[in-house]
Write a sequence for this structure.
């Protein structure tokens, strides 16, 4: 094993699930009317994250910019020792340059914008807010001119997948530091939209590869999240499944994330560790005194075992250990026939395609 492999030291801190938009694919539709989390509770979450070695946080929601105490929370995080603070946002509030300057003056380092459409009509429809695209473009222009890094997310599904390249071209106008393609999934409480927006990976892969080919000319930090490796040959280093998350500086520490998540039942993390350890049955990391890595691997092993599946033929694939397979809901609706094992020597290092991110 590579001795200087690094684990991510980033996690998200939720400020509440309220939002000023209504995305059709939103994970949290059932929680959007819940009250915002108090700044006192959020500060406790930040201190908890610090105790477990977290150095970077993404304030998330819902929409974090609607929390009235966001500037104070950013300042608090930096004052207490968080090295990098980011917000995940639809950009609507950041169309006001004065507000964005206030956040930057408070210590904001990064912004992860959500770009969902390929033009005004598609974006406004997908986020359920008329005028959202024009405000997002204004927010991106503001951020581009100010001392803050830009990152961009785009959820890819049946409505916009053919325009993935167009989305990438729009994003490139603002020289993002990183770009995430997130394929539609039924994570947690998004099953209702998953049924309507899902499409086979065989259809979605070509547009995504075309978009990545465009982006990689000027951008190293590209993610295609939670997709099978066999559909993206030649683009493997961009795939970020559950095990790749552990070794990606832009992703969230699984153990701390589960401890902080607001919709997990109390002590769910304990069950996940025990169940993951049982399924994993490999305690070599404990012998090497790499306890945090072991806990993280147990968490993601549990997530994989609970929500994902593979075809029997996948056991022949060189990416068998690295690959999540497909969600069980995907398999139920579309089957497993499309999965094709990739020939070659089997890779067992989960971080194999993450090395470039940490310059290993």
């Amino acid at each position: 094993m590579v001795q200087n492999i690094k684990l991510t030291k980033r996690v998200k801190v939720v400020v509440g699930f309220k939002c000023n938009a209504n995305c059709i694919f939103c994970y949290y539709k059932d929680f959007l009317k819940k009250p915002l989390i108090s700044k006192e509770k959020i500060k406790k979450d930040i201190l908890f994250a610090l105790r477990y070695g977290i150095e970077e946080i993404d304030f998330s929601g819902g929409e974090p910019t609607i929390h009235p105490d966001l500037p104070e929370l950013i300042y608090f995080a930096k004052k207490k020792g968080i090295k990098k603070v980011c917000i995940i946002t639809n950009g609507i509030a950041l169309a006001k340059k004065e507000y964005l300057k206030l956040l930057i003056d408070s210590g904001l380092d990064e912004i992860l914008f959500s770009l969902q459409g390929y033009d005004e009509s598609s974006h406004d429809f997908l986020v359920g807010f008329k005028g959202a695209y024009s405000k997002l473009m204004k927010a991106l222009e503001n951020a581009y001119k100010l001392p803050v890094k830009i990152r961009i997310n785009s959820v890819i599904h049946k409505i916009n997948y053919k325009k993935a390249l167009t989305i990438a071209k729009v994003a490139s106008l603002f020289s993002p530091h990183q770009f995430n393609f997130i394929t539609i999934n039924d994570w947690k409480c998004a099953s209702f939209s998953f049924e309507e927006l899902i499409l086979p990976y065989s259809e979605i892969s070509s547009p995504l590869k075309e978009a990545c080919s465009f982006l990689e000319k000027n951008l190293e930090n590209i993610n295609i999240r939670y997709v099978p490796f066999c559909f993206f040959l030649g683009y493997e280093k961009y795939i970020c499944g559950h095990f790749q998350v552990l070794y990606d500086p832009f992703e969230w520490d699984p153990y701390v994330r589960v401890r902080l998540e607001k919709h997990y039942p109390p002590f769910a993390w304990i069950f996940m560790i025990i169940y993951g350890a049982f399924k994993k049955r490999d305690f070599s990391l404990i012998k090497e005194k790499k306890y945090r890595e072991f806990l993280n691997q147990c968490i993601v092993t549990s997530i994989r075992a609970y929500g994902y599946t593979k075809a029997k033929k996948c056991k022949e694939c060189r990416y068998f250990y690295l690959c999540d397979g497909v969600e069980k809901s995907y398999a139920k609706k579309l089957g497993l026939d499309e999965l094709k094992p990739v020939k070659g020597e089997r890779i067992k290092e989960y971080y194999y395609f993450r090395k470039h991110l940490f310059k290993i």
